Amino acid sequence: MMLFKLLWASIVARKSMAIMTCCSIAISMLVLLSVVHIESQLRQNFERSVSGVDLIVGSRTSQLNLLLFSVFKIGYPTNNLQGDSFATIAKNPMVAWAVPISLGDSHQGYGVVGTTQNYFSHLKYADKQPLVFASGLSFKTNFEVVLGAAVAKALAYTLGDNIVLAHGAGKVSFTQHQAHPFTVVGVLKPTGTPMDRSIYIPIQSVEILHNSIGAQHSEQAHSPAEHELDEVAHTQQLSAVLVGAKSRIGVLSLQREISQFKQEPLTAILPGLALRELWQMMSVVEISLKAISILVLFAAMIGMTTMLLASMRERRQELSVLRALGARPWLILLLVEAEAVLLTLVGGFMGYIMLCLGLVLLEPLLLQEYSFSLSTYPELGLFAGYLLMALLLAMVLALIPAISAYLKSLKSGLSFI
């Protein structure tokens, strides 16, 4: 009990330096936890964006490029996939379902995805959660459009609104498809994935927009579900095909068969393996950021050690009084160590609270602007591990001023005698 009273009195006597030390440790812990937490959340967001898709098929390219543009809408396809190739893949006895996608258009900076109604019934996210409509339904005829949650919220679109698409993926385009406005018929519920920032139209409409015979097609205004396979087979604007296999065992055989496709050179990738390659490429960056964060924490611990050392000269009289009152030298050493541990504990919890508050404020913005779902509460196990590391580091570094105080207390005790 006496130790805690002495500890509290010592900290109160140097409250300004103690507060600055706690803030320094809090900021370093905030940086370290932020790097680890965001890296973990980034992995989860990438993994939740593609679920239930066994293969992604596109024209011959690297598997990372195919994964990024087809799922995360980052980059562009090197070449288009032929419609008859899609028809052949869809008819393969090992294929349960196949969903084509066509990219290349946009609306106010949001990417347009040409696809079929099967996209909304077969595509999943997170732990195989289905896509759900917040309002409206899927497109039924050409020139109807379904909006992702982030698009509808950012542009304030509702059912029945008309929008005009633009050629190209930039925010500014000089080629507008003014002759073919689309009507909003559905809005998806938020998923926290790139799906929220996409606009979905019938894949036949993509062909109409880019063909001189578009007016002839638009007059038919037929349902995209009618003769869907035949319609897609005549499409020349396919960017990729998302494939679900009937059996997980036969996925590798199906991948090999598609990779040896005779009609045109194709690439078939397993999304999980492609993601693993992406994380391997990013591992150097992750390690570097963690190393920098740990060095920042180490610098804060050094600062605390320096503060404790600097206080030793001021505390010479205090140590003499304690020795005169009968305090043992080991109690002086323990007092300095306990002070370092307490400052580290307070700073660590301050850093955790600061991170939680920052995440609460940033989470809506990240979800709206980047469709990035961020957990607002970092894992307590993760925090406990790094806090324990900081405490051990503090105890080791605090031995320097603690031993100094111990030796000075011995000298003061001898001189007192």
Number of distinct beta strands: 14
- Helix/strand-derived class? alpha+beta
Q: Tell me the radius of gyration.
A: 31 Å
How would you describe the shape?
Answer: elongated
Q: Kindly, what is the distance between the CA atoms of the first and last residues, rounded to a whole number of angstroms?
A: 27 Å
Structurally, the number of domains stands at 2
Mean pLDDT: 82
Instruction: Report the biggest beta sheet as strand number plus sense, adding barrel if it closes.
Output: 8 strands, mixed
Helix count equals 14
Measured as a percent range, the helix fraction is 55-70%
Order of helices and strands: HHEHHEEEHEEEEHEEEEHHHEHEHHHH
Which segments are poorly predicted (pLDDT under 50) over 5 or more consecutive residues? 212-226
Strand content: 5-15%
